[in-house]
Amino acid sequence: MTLLQIMADDDAATVLLRTDDLDRIAENLAPFGITLRRWATVPLPADAAQDDVLAAYRSEVDTLSAEGPYPLVDVVRMVPDDTDAGVERARAARLKFLEEHTHDEDEVRFFVEGAGCFYLHLGDKVYAVVCTAGDLMSVPAGTTHWFDMGIRPGFCAIRFFQAEDGWVAGFTGSAIAATMPTLDELLAPAASDLLSLEGERNG
Ligand SMILES: CSCCC(=O)/C(O)=C/O
Ligand SMILES: [Fe+2]
Ligand code: NI
């Protein structure tokens, strides 16, 4: 389920909007030049490699590339792995994107599987966009943002780069990311919601 939660940038508890309505999400992002589109997903085997993923989406990738150019298209895939080495790999991968940064190029990402959250720092608000399978998001160059793949990452995304050097970020040095809910917190129903649900069932 794709989700948008808008919060005040100085107080994450001030939730201005939370919606899973795709039209409302796209409407709220459009003024910033951010687009969110949907592609139909293709089932893939659990051990699909980068080339298999790209082959499965060849026509979509080619169509988008014609709008580019995107000289580099790659695939990031994280499979939950509870071994000590897997947990360490996941921790390192998560940390790489977890601080606020910008790119000199547009950030264009298609979610093939799983979920991840982009936090877009726009004016005095943070727009947390949980992308799930089928979401194609494009964020203009220079937009301050960070990304959380969660404590136990499980996602696959195709990345479209406008330059051949791939992922290059300029970190802002801001500590804002640590003040906002993580992907896992955004997806977990609040304890208060569970209590009221329980009340409804018993009442
Ligand atoms: C969803 S792909 C991995 C994250 C990434 O490429 C990025 O730029 C996050 O800000
Ligand atoms: Fe990014
Ligand atoms: Ni980034």
From TrEMBL:
UniProt key word Hydrolase: no
A UniProt-annotated Pfam family: ARD
Binding site for Fe(2+): 101, 103, 107, 145
GO terms (BP aspect): L-methionine salvage from methylthioadenosine; L-methionine salvage from S-adenosylmethionine
Site entry: Important to generate the dianion: 109
Essential cofactor(s): Fe(2+); Ni(2+)
Binding sites annotated in the UniProt record for Ni(2+): 101, 103, 107, 145
Positions marked as site (May play a role in transmitting local conformational changes): 106
Binding note for cofactor: Binds 1 Fe(2+) cation per monomer.
Catalytic reaction annotation: 1,2-dihydroxy-5-(methylsulfanyl)pent-1-en-3-one + O2 = 3-(methylsulfanyl)propanoate + CO + formate + 2 H(+); 1,2-dihydroxy-5-(methylsulfanyl)pent-1-en-3-one + O2 = 4-methylsulfanyl-2-oxobutanoate + formate + 2 H(+)
Pathway this chain belongs to: Amino-acid biosynthesis; L-methionine biosynthesis via salvage pathway; L-methionine from S-methyl-5-thio-alpha-D-ribose 1-phosphate: step 5/6
Listed GO MF terms: acireductone dioxygenase (Ni2+-requiring) activity; acireductone dioxygenase [iron(II)-requiring] activity; iron ion binding; nickel cation binding
Gene3D superfamilies given in the database record: Jelly Rolls (2.60.120.10)
EC number: 1.13.11.54, 1.13.11.53
SUPFAM superfamilies: RmlC-like cupins
Record's keyword terms, sorted: Amino-acid biosynthesis, Dioxygenase, Iron, Metal-binding, Methionine biosynthesis, Nickel, Oxidoreductase
Site (May play a role in metal incorporation in vivo): 100
Protein role: Catalyzes 2 different reactions between oxygene and the acireductone 1,2-dihydroxy-3-keto-5-methylthiopentene (DHK-MTPene) depending upon the metal bound in the active site. Fe-containing acireductone dioxygenase (Fe-ARD) produces formate and 2-keto-4-methylthiobutyrate (KMTB), the alpha-ketoacid precursor of methionine in the methionine recycle pathway. Ni-containing acireductone dioxygenase (Ni-ARD) produces methylthiopropionate, carbon monoxide and formate, and does not lie on the methionine recycle pathway.
Family as reported in the entry's similarity comment: Belongs to the acireductone dioxygenase (ARD) family.
Subunit annotation: Monomer.
Record's protein name: Acireductone dioxygenase
Biological source species: Actinokineospora alba
Gene: mtnD
